[in-house]
Amino acid sequence: MSLRYMQRKCPEHIQSVRAFSLSFWCYGLSFLLLITEQTVFAEKSIIVGQTLQESPSFQKGFVHPGILHVQTDLDRMKIMIQQEREPWKSGYEKLKTHPQSQSDYQLRGPFEEIGRKPNVHFAHFDQDANAAYQCAVMWYITGNTSYAEKSSRIVNAWASMLQTVSGKDAILMAGLGPFKMINAAEILRYTHDRWTEADSRRCERMFKNVIYPTIKNFATFANGNWDTACIKTMMAIGVFCNDRDIFQRAVNYYYTGSGNGSITHYIINETGQCQESGRDQQHTQLGLAHLAEACQIAWNQDLDLFSVADNRLFKGFEYTAKYNLGYEVPFVHHVDTTGKYHHTKISPRDERFRPIWEMSWNHYHKRRGLDMPYTRQVGEKIRPEGAAHGADHPGFGTFLFSLPSETEPTAVLLPANYAIGADLSFLKQAEERGIVFKDKGIPKPGLQIFRDHGYNWIRLRLFHTPSRLPNNLSYTIATAKEAKQLGYKFLLNFHYSDTWADPGHQIIPKAWRDMSHDQLVQTVKEYTRDTIAAFRDAGVLPDMVQIGNEITPGILWPDGKLPEHWNNFTELLKAGIEGVRAGIGKKPCPKIMLHIDKGGDRKATQGFFDKIASYNIHYDVIGQSFYPWWHGSLEDLSENMTFMANTYQKDIILVEVAYNWRPTEYRNKPAPFPETPQGQRQFLEEVNRIVLNTPGNHGIGIFWWEPAVFGGLRSRGFFDDDGNALPVMNAFDNFIRK
After folding, report:
1. Which residues, 6 or more positions from 386, have their beta carbon under 8 angstroms from its beta carbon?
2. What's the CA gap between 230 and 260, in Å, rounded?
């Protein structure tokens, strides 16, 4: 830090440093007489009887997301909430109900300047930083895009406006709240596909041009919690901006920094006494919290700072916990690295434990197997951890940092793009008619129940002009809106009919019956275009589109019937695909699926898709139906999945799958599984295993056909006759995404 910069930003500190330099020698000799043989004067990396090792050089690329949370951390939190596991569930309640974790949070900023002493929008920024971070976490856990949009709006607003960090305490201002803003940006950048590269670049500018210059030279004149704040925030900036030099600068300072915040200057000896232990216990806990966060970031980047100096951070936590629980601890006279702060006795106990203990407890005890009796007692005393004071540190550690024990079941990893889907085209109608769906006996909206159990895709059918069925354009848009609000992706299933289109029925819409082939091709294109545009304008553009449903026998009979009219059929397919592309405007194009009903039939599958290839049809995903009483055995399915993946190199989704929970299809013939609630779940688990084992990771998902169906087909659904969720609902509870 330049003298000019310090004079402009923190003149009081310059004056104090000058005053100290003039007076130090006046009392220096007498002061040295006060130091006993137990006194530690921390200097550079040297401590009594020990030399600190060199800081490691960071040469690798960065892991993303990778500040406080890597992808597996986010996934662990999500699955624990889906499973309603403790202590995560209780910890999550603290986060979920916090005022700054709400999707309707009202921004306090942005402003061009923030500062401390004098305070300039200090509280506004910190509250917004809390909300940005907490809503980013809420977005990932719930899948509700309103949280992501709120977090994005906060981060983008400040990134577009902030120019200056000011005041005597500018360094502390820059070291605290911005840390949460950086973590929010990191989560958004790597989990929210609507956050753009331009958004990321604006954030990089704010972090590197406004925040980093303020903390670049640390706070060598201040108590250690200032330095420790700089370390963690500098590391976070390095990760987000993919800047190894910035990251390395913070790591080096953690090891051997000259101020009070380096590891052996803050935790001054092997007993765990801290530089601020003689000041007050709140600031001592704050410094420890910052160091733990820095260690967590490094750990996520494959650097172990937790163990530096013989687990010095571990000792600091235990010492501080023990003392504030009421036990006696040793204390030595200590003068800090500036010479300004001289403590001859420990400060009074403070039973107001900050929510900082879970991170260190889970690392040292659960990962490393080290006993932390006093940290454990504090954890038990305050668990579940709630919010931090202001934006001092993350808070909510019980939810954010708790790790499962070795005896707890390990979740199964799914590919990040894996679709756990359901065709819920009748769900809205069922609920409008008064049918109540229940999960563990508790009535809930059906969409929420499926979301709570890991479902991330919804499939909705669309009829042209249905007479009795509800699946027209307005109904489908309304359902899609409800699903998108909960974070679902959306597969639109064009039937190109007024009623069911399937292998036995591909009935042309009544409005199109008298058209010639050329007129029909043009109409299919325009109808598809206008329909996609309607979804786009409603803010629910599909993520994937089926051009027809179970189209092995063709579409729009008789014009596009197969095998008689392959030319007509493929021209109609191309018209539908062109219509999708014409309707999206400037939005990304949904993936195109071609869906047939031959899940267990390799020969028929080959006959269809080889012919499609000869007509140069451009599509993205193969969709298959697999009902075992119609489409073959599980062995047949496995063989066909392998064939399709190896032959066509396309992703494959079983877009219609079902099995009964009471005897229906297998009354008089052998069944692959009992038609019971447990047999239904076993069927889904086995089908999922086959899809996941598809070569080249080309098996990318399963959609259950109408798990919320009512009436005569209810035995294929996920709910019993009283609306209670059956065991099959839990089939994906132990799955998390890579």
Report:
1. 94, 98, 355, 395, 396
2. 12
Q: pLDDT category, 492, cuts 50, 70, 90? A: very high
pLDDT at residue 658 tops 70? yes
Please give the DSSP secondary-structure letter assigned to residue 675: S
Element spanning 659, H or E: none
Contacts 24+ apart (CB under 8 A), 724-729: 724/438, 724/441, 725/437, 725/438, 725/439, 725/440, 725/449, 726/661, 726/677, 726/680, 726/681, 727/677, 727/678, 727/680, 727/681, 728/661, 728/677, 728/680, 728/681, 728/684, 729/439, 729/449, 729/450, 729/453
In angstroms, rounded to a whole number, what is the distance separating the alpha carbons of residues 222 and 231? 14
pLDDT at 9 over 70: no
Query: Residue 315 and residue 295: Cα distance in Å, rounded?
Result: 14
Give the rounded distance of the alpha carbon of 594 from its chain centre: 31
Q: What is the pLDDT of residue 172?
A: 97
Residue at 188: amino acid letter: L
C-alpha 182/C-alpha 240 separation (Å) is 7
**Tokens matching residue 567:** 């030319």
Instruction: Give the list of residues 6+ apart from residue 499 with CB closer than 8 angstroms, or none.
Output: 463, 466, 467, 469, 505, 507
What pTM does this model have? 0.59
Question: Are 423 and 461 a contacting pair, CB within 8 Å?
Answer: yes
Q: 323-329 — which CB contacts under 8 Å span 24+ positions?
A: 323/277, 323/281, 323/349, 324/281, 324/349, 324/350, 324/351, 324/353, 324/378, 325/374, 325/377, 325/378, 325/381, 327/374, 329/271, 329/272, 329/273
Give the residue from 545, 547, 549, 493 showing the smallest Cα distance to 521. Answer: 547
pLDDT of 52 reads: 54
Q: Hey, what amino acid is at 588?
A: P
Write out the two tokens for 694.
Answer: 């598809």
Around Cβ 125, how many Cβ atoms within 10 Å? 27
Q: Which of 648, 493, 652 is nearest to 576 (CA)?
A: 493
- Which residues share a beta bridge with 630? none
pLDDT tens digit string along 417-469?
A: 899 999 999 999 999 999 999 999 999 999 999 999 999 999 999 999 999 99
Helices (H), 224-372: 224-240, 244-256, 263-266, 281-300, 308-324, 357-361
* CA pair distance 463, 548, nearest whole angstrom: 11
Residue 550: active-site member:
yes
Give the per-residue pLDDT at 408: 62
In this structure, of 38-42, 60-64, 213-217, the range with the lowest mean pLDDT score is 38-42
- Work out the angle at residue 70's Cα, subtended by the Cα atoms of residues 68 and 76, and round it to the nearest 5 degrees: 105
Mean pLDDT over 339-350 rounds to 96
pLDDT in tens, 540-587: 999 999 999 999 999 999 999 999 999 999 999 999 999 999 999 999
Single-letter code of the amino acid located at 120: V
Q: In this structure, are residues 229 and 236 in contact, taking their beta carbons and an 8 Å threshold?
A: no
Measuring CA to CA, which residue among 496, 501, 491 is closest to residue 422?
491
Percent of the chain with pLDDT over 90: 83
Rounded Cα–Cα distance for residues 273 and 316 (Å)? 6
Let me know: does 571 contact 516? Beta carbons within 8 Å: no
> Which run of H or E residues covers position 426?
none
Assess whether pLDDT exceeds 90 at residue 358: yes
- List pLDDT tens digits, range 281-331: 999 999 999 999 999 999 999 899 999 999 999 999 999 999 999 999 999
Decide if 406 is catalytic: no
Q: How far is CA 697 from the centre of its chain?
A: 22
Q: Which residue is catalytic, options 550, 571, 675, 706?
A: 550
Q: What are phi and psi of 646, to 5 degrees?
A: -75, -30
Where does residue 403 fall: left (phi above 0), alpha (psi -120 to 50 degrees), or beta otherwise?
Answer: beta
d(CA 571, CA 189): 40
